[in-house]
Design brief:
Elements lengths: L9 H10 L10 H4 L5 E6 L1 H4 L6 H8 L2 E4 L5 H4 L9 H12 L3 E8 L19 H18 L6 E6 L12 H6 L3 H12 L4 E6 L5 H16 L6 E4 L2 E2 L6 H12 L4 E9 L32 H20 L4 E6 L29 H9 L3
Parallel strand pairs: 1-2, 1-9, 2-3, 3-4, 4-5, 5-6, 6-8, 7-8, 8-9
Helix pairs in contact: 7-9, 12-13
The protein binds alpha-D-galactopyranose.
């Protein structure tokens, strides 16, 4: 069946969730369904926050009460050259969030990807010193966070600092500054906006070795009095990974440390050929894989239903932990927007199809909401 024939309508979703308990028709939107539990967010692109996406914008406004910029606050976009910031797009992003009463997230300050080479080099192409790199980091964070002080409510301060085995990734940040680049980034962000929530964000934290590394990192930061308020579980997940038990144990382990847990980049990769890659390393995304184009003509009904069940099992875990989870953000709005499509894959990872229609997965998520 073609993808756009499958979805049950919003109205039907309401009736279904309502009749099970003889209540009034159930909540029709994601943000209403989970309003007593956590924010429901979406990562949005430039067309969307410019109000030019006729299909995506009505969905964003109706369904989501938090927003993350997909790309425009990454270093390469907002700070492309030494001494040159470009705030045109981020300004529009923040205005869009405010106009639509959304809890606005900043993503991301310190990362090894989408950061220009000049940041780490002097004018001869040689690595800069620790002091120079710290000064650049400080300038970047004070300028960007400071500009949106009080308006961007939470920042992904450091993204993806860990290897799969839980050790510290040897990124240019660590090579040049040392392990304490993480402490410094949080201190600068706190100085720029003392009221902002500050997060450490990473993928595959459901895998035990990496999770243990993140737990050690958070314990270290807390022991040093570093103002970290949340851990971001990216949750670029597969159909069978992580298991609900792994997700449950991961959320519990972090909540015990006294930080909030956020699901920051949720999507479900449904393409069979990529199920074995249990990380979200973006450099692996464009590699050819046999069978990657399995669903070029739409998602078959059996897979639609399997995806719906997968979303429901994840949301059951999130709702169970609602006291510790402050936000669940999807990485994109409709399937067509997703980074999981590439020249090798047509993917169906989100709750709305390419025509902007809610999929069975949407109804499955709504059905998990508490009365
Ligand atoms: C990581 C980053 C996001 C995004 C995704 C995939 O998870 O944190 O900003 O780049 O990869 O695109």
């Amino acid at each position: 069946m073609k993808n756009n024939l499958a979805p049950i309508s919003l109205a039907l979703a309401g009736l279904l969730t309502g009749c099970a308990t003889h209540r009034q028709p159930g909540p029709l939107t994601l943000k209403d369904a989970f309003k007593n539990d956590f924010f429901i967010g979406a990562a949005i692109n430039q067309t969307q926050f410019s109000d030019e996406d006729l299909r995506g914008d009505p969905i964003i406004k109706a369904q989501f009460n938090s927003t993350t910029p997909e790309n425009i606050l990454k270093w390469e976009s907002v700070h492309p050259q030494l001494g040159k910031f470009d705030f045109a797009a981020p300004d529009r992003y923040v205005e869009f969030g405010e106009k639509n009463n959304m809890f606005i997230i900043g993503h991301t300050l310190v990362w090894h990807n989408q950061t220009p080479r000049w940041v780490f080099q002097d004018e001869n192409g040689k690595p800069v010193t620790r002091d120079v790199l710290l000064a650049r980091m400080r300038d970047h964070i004070l300028t960007v966070v400071g500009r949106y002080k009080g308006r961007i409510k939470g920042w992904d301060v450091v993204n993806e600092a860990l290897n799969e085995d839980g050790t510290m990734r040897n990124s240019p940040w660590r090579k040049i500054i040392g392990d304490d680049y993480i402490e410094k980034a949080f201190q600068f962000a706190h100085k720029a906006d003392p009221s902002a929530q500050l997060h450490y964000n990473d993928y595959s934290l459901e895998n035990e070795p990496k999770r243990n590394g993140a737990i050690a990192l958070i314990k270290r930061l807390k022991a040093e009095g570093i103002p970290i308020t949340a851990i971001g579980l990216q949750d670029h997940v597969k159909m069978n990974w992580p298991t609900p038990d792994q997700e449950d144990a991961t959320i519990s382990a972090f909540a015990k440390l006294g930080v909030k847990v956020m699901i920051t980049e949720l999507d479900v990769d449904i393409v069979p050929a990529t199920q074995h890659n249990r990380t979200a390393d973006i450099t692996l995304n464009n590699q050819p894989a046999a069978g990657a184009n399995a669903f070029t003509n739409g998602l078959p009904e059996a897979q639609q239903q399997a995806l719906a069940q997968r979303y429901a099992e994840l949301f059951r875990v999130f709702v169970k932990h609602r006291a510790d989870i402050s936000r669940v953000t999807f990485w994109g709005v409709t399937d067509g927007d997703s980074w999981l499509n590439s020249r090798n894959r047509v993917n169906y990872p989100l709750l709305f199809d390419r025509a902007g229609q809610p999929k069975p997965a949407f109804n499955a998520v709504i059905s998990v909401a508490r009365p």
